[in-house]
Design brief:
Blueprint: E1 5-8, E2 20-25, H1 32-44, H2 52-72, E3 77-83, E4 89-96, H3 116-123, E5 127-132, E6 135-143
Parallel strand pairs: 1-5
Antiparallel strand pairs: 2-3, 3-4, 4-6, 5-6
């Protein structure tokens, strides 16, 4: 199954009235545990509350996207979490300074690493990559039940 990649040169505005979390870090390293905790904290405020599996899926998606940014981007990165109306989905956006889009590697059960985008594709409604003047923005929508 391929990850649908759409590339855009425009920016989007934040949606008013939604539960949101944002964080920016200025080096290539951030705490993945902090990002996972932010997902759990935000989703604990959702009504209706998502089930445990949905929270875990969202945490895994955030872990993979933030890890990719931390490993491949030399400069400032940002994470934005937005809970969509009715707690139907969590929109995860990671912005970084690496212009290259994420690349899904061929499956290889013997390889350590390189499986993250496969997991993201299974848990989301696709991946959208937006080119920015100094990097990219990667957005994924995680359905919640």
């Amino acid at each position: 199954m391929d990850i649908p990649l759409r590339t855009h040169a425009t920016t989007t505005q934040a949606r008013p009235g939604h539960l949101r979390y944002s964080r920016t870090w200025h080096t290539g390293v951030t705490s993945i545990a902090d990002a996972r905790d932010a997902v759990a904290a935000l989703l604990s405020r959702a009504r209706p509350a998502p089930d445990r599996r949905s929270v875990q899926d969202a945490q895994l998606v955030v872990s993979e996207l933030v890890t990719n940014a931390a490993q491949h981007a030399p400069g400032p990165c940002a994470l934005l979490l937005e809970l969509l109306p009715g707690a139907a989905a969590l929109c995860v956006t990671v912005t970084d300074t690496c212009a290259r889009p994420p690349r899904r590697r061929p499956p290889d059960p013997g390889r350590v690493g390189g499986h993250g985008l496969h997991l993201v594709s299974m848990l989301t409604r696709g991946l959208e990559v937006t080119s920015l003047p100094h990097g990219k923005r990667v957005t994924a929508t995680v359905p919640l039940t």
